[in-house]
Amino acid sequence: MRDRGTERVITEGDIDSFFDEAEIELLQSNIAVEAIEFMRDVMKKELVNKKIKRRGAEKLISEAMERALLGLVDHGKADIEKVIKESKKQGKPACLVFLGFNGAGKTTSIAKVARWLIDRGYSVVLAAGDTFRAASIEQLEHHGRKLGVNVIKHQYGSDSAAVIFDARKHAGSKGIDVVLADTAGRMHTDKNLADELKKIIRVNQPDLKVLLIDSLTGNDAVEQAKMFHEMVGVDCVIMAKTDVNKKGGSILSVSYAIQKPILFLGTGQEYGDIKKFNPERFVKDLME
């Protein structure tokens, strides 16, 4: 900082020094390099050539950091209830298709979202669209029984797009508000997975494409998010297992990488362990 008596002027070098010192800690918190560079640029735009009094320096820098962090995760709002109400006006059930690799917590998260919706008075049907992974249909049926909701299924190896189509038809005929559709998370090749997901989207035109990311996967989370977004376009993200990984870096990095909002955070094993994501609250908690 250039000295002017009791005032200081912040230079680009000050910001670079700050990030050079903090970079290892930020990377260890699973914040991707591109997200760190975004924060550096925001801080430079906000602070370089600003005159600050020594006493006020910490507050000024802290507020700029808060705005930089918010810029990483504030990408509009995915409002499930608004989507359901809009679909109702059109006389059809809302359809949410869930994407994500096996092991990310996709099926459990679908059950959590079902419980969240049921608790708010919406009727739900589940679609067993993962016809590839062994025991995936039984797993979804287990959740369906516990939640008291129907699961629409075909045989293993059948067409996933057709399963979800039938679930939508069933929901429409029974006046059910929402279809929550599972999908395969890994096939023989990425091309097989991409082709299947593209067909599901083309045939069913879902209202929301929801990506499930395991927050414990670290920087792989960003690559997964980019891959699914390039395949079919992601509308919003659920970050699972955030109770185990409290660093928050994956949340910041994924949202920034695909410029999409975080919908929910998974916070435990029970159906009620899910909470709506609030960007401002999340950033304030990180800063404390």
Helical/strand content category: alpha/beta
Q: In total, how many domains does the architecture comprise?
A: 2
Radius of gyration, in angstroms, nearest whole number? 22 Å
SS field, number of helical segments: 11
Seen as an oligomer or otherwise, the chain set is: single chain
Order of helices and strands: EEHHEHHEHEHEHEHEHEHEEH
Give a quick account of the main beta sheet: strands, pairing sense, barrel closure. 8 strands, mixed
* Share in helix: 40-55%
Number of strands: 11
Give me the CATH architecture of the largest domain, please.
Answer: 3-Layer(aba) Sandwich
Q: Strand order across the biggest sheet? A: 6-5-7-4-8-9-10-11
Low-confidence parts, pLDDT < 50 over ≥5 residues?
Answer: none
The residue-averaged pLDDT reads 91
Describe this protein's structure.
This protein is an alpha/beta fold. The protein folds into 2 domains: 2-73, SRP54, nucleotide-binding domain (Four Helix Bundle (Hemerythrin (Met), subunit A), Up-down Bundle), CATH 1.20.120.140; 80-287, Rossmann fold (3-Layer(aba) Sandwich), CATH 3.40.50. The chain is built from 11 helices and 11 strands. It has helices at residues 12-28, 33-47, 57-73, 80-89, 106-119, 136-147, 160-174, 190-204, 220-232, 249-258, 279-287, and strands at residues 2-4, 7-9, 51-53, 94-99, 124-127, 151-152, 178-181, 208-214, 236-240, 262-266, 274-276. The strands form 2 sheets. It has an 8-stranded mixed sheet, sandwiched between helices. The chain has a 3-stranded antiparallel sheet with strand order 1-2-3, with no helix packed on it. The longest helix is centred in the N-terminal third of the chain and has 17 residues, at 12-28. The chain is elongated and about 75 Å long. The chain starts with a strand and ends with a helix.
